[in-house]
Design brief:
Largest interface: A-B, 19 and 22 residues
Number of domains of chain A: 2
CATH class of the largest domain in chain A: Mainly Alpha
CATH topology of the largest domain in chain A: MetI-like fold
Helix content of chain B: 25-40%
Oligomer: heterodimer
Strand order of the largest sheet of chain B: 5-6-7-3-8-9
Structural class of chain A: mainly alpha
Number of helices of chain A: 11
Distance between the termini of chain A: 26 Å
Radius of gyration of chain B: 19 Å
Number of strands of chain B: 9
Largest sheet of chain B: 6 strands, mixed
CATH architecture of the largest domain in chain A: Orthogonal Bundle
Structural class of chain B: alpha/beta
Distance between the termini of chain B: 40 Å
Shape of chain A: flat
CATH superfamily of the largest domain in chain A: MetI-like
Order of helices and strands of chain A: HHHHHHHHHHH
Helix content of chain A: over 70%
Shape of chain B: globular
Strand content of chain B: 15-25%
Number of helices of chain B: 8
Largest sheet of chain A: none
Number of strands of chain A: 0
């Protein structure tokens, strides 16, 4: 137990008892919900196509495990690629927008309008253009997740501390040096916040993409939900559960990476 | 403004009269205003090399603004900037009523000065360290921006750390892990890592406690002598100014005196003993503090 070492580096380390509670509490709540849910289904005799119990969902997972697994990997790959594209392209676009006021004034309205375009309406169009492919789903996923990256990062890049900027001007820094050594690091906390929102949105986008692309080459979770809706309610619930877990993992993983890789210097209250 | 113009008579003659050293900083007839509000009027001064000058005055009297003009962070109303670094194109509004005055001039010089003027060090009111760089990498930053090689950077930063009393392990820390005093030491190290000839300090110790402020003042005065700086130090503490300065320039706020000049007095400060902690207990020091304070009260009345 390295408790003493830790508490010297950070003052907010919870006591061991409350750390156990932080893990045990949610597990207990989950158990209670599952038991209550199953009891409700049994006692009220609810048909399984309306509300399958946890045991029924488990049975479906066992029966269709391979199919669920394949769809899961596909959706994870789509959402992961979509997130990667929106982080990269979003950061580059924000860098362009941050270069001058006139660029922001000219392009920001279109970025905002772009954000309000309903993806449900655009997705079929994208499929017409680019086909029923993996890349199209990646495109839809990044389409839906790029906005928070652009808007947060742009704000971050232009919110440079005046005294910090003075320091660079005193040393006659070039525009590129100011961008790389000052604007980019300044923007990272806001970029990280945008990335976390984008992470959750990218899974949603991949799901929407799956749904429209269907089983063109190989089905993703979004299509599986749609397929299972009428035939196997247990599988549908299982798919929803997996989607939720993926979304949560994407969010948590992005948060963790941002903390470790980008924000070591911060007080880490992200 | 490629070639420096000859200086005839600065509006304010240096206090110690015929000083031996050539001028490091020459300003003539500088004005600065923000919109309708004039912050500095008819600034003329000449600071010889090696002198320690304190700008003293109440808050809002423009002393920090003058320091920023010297550093090239602000442009005077008619656009003159140190050594003509910037084109004279900015802010034509403020000097309209004073248009008949002689042209303004601002030059920083040093022996063997290369193109671009003497090397400047600048210390901010806050430590102003970049939180995402370790202390070491903060101190290294000016050299990196100037394209100095890694080996030279390493040597210079190590020297600067030792100079300000920080060790290698402090260098590895993030700024937030340091106390206020140590952050200011890191900030000083960053200013002196480029081996400046002119050191400009903008109320650097005002956020520190009295004991620490005195100790850093003593060290600063030593560095000034050892490293051969020309130093300009902005403060509103009379005792601090008297301890540090060879010469105090008193500033007045223009808010109540719309037509007055900003610089009201040029006071030489000389002691018969070295600028060390003991000086603060001497009679001549205490008397000087009282005199300067009296003068400051008159100015502000």
């Amino acid at each position: 137990m390295t408790q003493t070492a830790r508490s010297t580096t950070r003052g907010r380390v919870p006591a061991p008892a409350s750390r156990i509670l932080a893990v045990l509490g949610p597990i207990l709540v989950l158990c209670a919900v599952l038991v209550g849910w199953q009891a409700l289904v049994w006692l009220r005799d609810i048909p399984k196509f309306i509300l399958p119990g946890p045991l029924e969902i488990l049975r479906s997972v066992q029966a269709d495990g391979a199919r669920l697994q394949a769809a899961t990997w596909r959706t994870v790959a789509e959402a992961g690629s979509g997130l990667g594209v929106s982080l990269l392209v979003g950061f580059l676009l924000a860098s362009l927008l941050s270069q001058a006021k006139w660029i922001r004034a000219s392009f920001m309205p279109y970025v905002l309008i772009f954000q309000t375009v309903p993806i449900i309406g655009v997705a079929p169009l994208l499929i017409t253009w680019f086909g029923n492919t993996f890349s199209t789903v990646v495109l839809i996923s990044s389409f839906i997740s790029i906005f928070p990256v652009i808007s947060n990062t742009t704000t971050g890049l232009i919110s440079v501390d005046a005294a910090h900027l003075d320091l660079f001007r005193l040393n006659r820094a070039t525009r590129w040096q100011i961008y790389w050594y000052l604007q980019v690091p300044t923007s990272l906390p806001l970029f990280a916040a945008g990335a976390r929102i984008a992470a959750a949105a990218s899974v949603l986008g991949a799901c929407v993409g799956d749904y429209f692309v269907g089983s063109g080459q190989q089905e993703g979770l979004g299509f599986l939900v749609f397929q299972a809706k009428d035939r196997d309610a247990g599988l549908m619930f299982a798919t929803l559960l997996v989607l939720t877990i993926i979304g949560f993992l994407f969010f948590s993983l992005t948060t963790a990476i941002c903390r470790v890789a980008l924000l070591r210097w911060e007080d880490q209250r992200l | 403004m490629q070639s420096p113009r000859p200086i005839d008579s600065p509006a304010s003659v240096p206090a110690d009269g015929a000083h031996a050293n050539p001028a490091a900083i020459v300003a003539r007839n500088l004005h600065k205003s923000y919109g309708d509000q004039t912050v500095l009027r008819r600034i003329g001064l000449e600071i010889p090399q090696g002198q320690f000058v304190c700008f003293l005055g109440a808050s809002g009297c423009g002393k920090s603004t003058l320091l920023r003009l010297l550093a090239g962070l602000e442009t005077p109303d008619d656009g003159a900037a140190p050594n003509g670094v910037r084109p004279a194109a900015m802010g034509s509004g403020g000097v309209g009523s004073l248009g008949a005055d002689e042209p303004s001039d601002l030059r920083l010089e040093s022996p063997g000065t290369e193109v671009g003027g003497p090397r400047l060090g600048f210390v901010f009111q806050q430590a102003n360290l970049l939180p995402w760089r370790t202390v070491y990498r903060n101190i290294e930053l000016p050299l990196r921006l100037q394209g100095v090689t890694a080996a030279q950077r390493r040597a210079a930063v190590t020297r600067a750390l030792a100079q300000v009393g920080l060790n290698e392990r402090d260098g590895e820390k993030w700024p937030r892990m340091l106390s206020g005093g140590m952050q200011m030491r890191a900030s000083l190290a960053r200013a002196l890592v480029t081996a400046p000839q002119i050191m400009l300090l903008d109320e650097p110790f005002s956020a520190l406690d009295e004991v620490l402020r005195q100790r850093l003042g003593e060290e600063l005065r030593q560095w000034h002598q050892q490293l051969g700086w020309t130093t300009v130090f902005v403060t509103h503490h009379v005792s601090e100014a008297v301890f540090l300065a060879d010469r105090i320039l008193l500033f007045r706020s223009l808010a109540q005196a719309p037509e007055a000049e900003s610089l009201v007095a040029d006071l030489p400060i000389q002691f018969n003993q070295p600028r060390q902690a003991e000086l603060r207990e001497s009679r001549e020091y205490v008397e000087t503090v009282i005199q300067v304070t009296k003068r400051l009260r008159e100015v502000q009345a």
